[in-house]
Design a protein that fits this description.
By secondary structure, the chain is mainly β. Helices cover 0% and strands 54% of the residues. The radius of gyration is 18 Å and the shape is elongated. Pfam families: fn3_6.
């Protein structure tokens, strides 16, 4: 069973990768205005665990995670991280998919990312 969970403790066969069902879905309104979300995860495995982030960004985006590693111990069971996603183009798109995976060398906890860029056309209040 994996050592890092976000909400509940499902039964997962030994040696399997657990796919965390937190899907980050967002519309990015502008390349100059990235979207940032905060998530908290709970370690339910070995007290001394360090998970490192691996990012597969959705097409046309830059994804940052902070911090890039989560270090749990006997007194730290919950940690918070942020995901920031920016568009690298100025065009409307459908949904593109990527992921953030936390890996400790034994377990892999994957968070799906779904992003759509939608740029709103500026309007002129003077027009009738």
């Amino acid at each position: 069973m994996p050592a890092l969970l976000a909400r509940r403790n499902p039964v997962v066969p030994q040696g399997f990768t657990y796919r965390l069902v937190i899907i980050f879905v967002s519309t990015i309104p502008s390349p100059r205005n990235p979207i940032t979300v905060k998530r908290t995860v709970t370690n339910v495995g070995a007290p001394e665990s360090i998970y490192k982030a691996t990012i597969e960004p959705p097409f046309g985006t830059i994804v940052y995670v902070n911090p890039t590693a989560l270090a749990f111990n006997s007194t730290v069971e919950k940690l918070t991280f942020t995901i920031t996603i920016s568009a690298i183009h100025e065009m409307n798109t459908g949904y593109y998919f990527g992921s953030l995976t936390w890996v400790d060398g034994v377990h892999a906890v994957r968070i799906s990312l779904s992003v759509k860029t939608e740029f709103l056309q500026p309007h002129d209040d003077d027009e009738d």
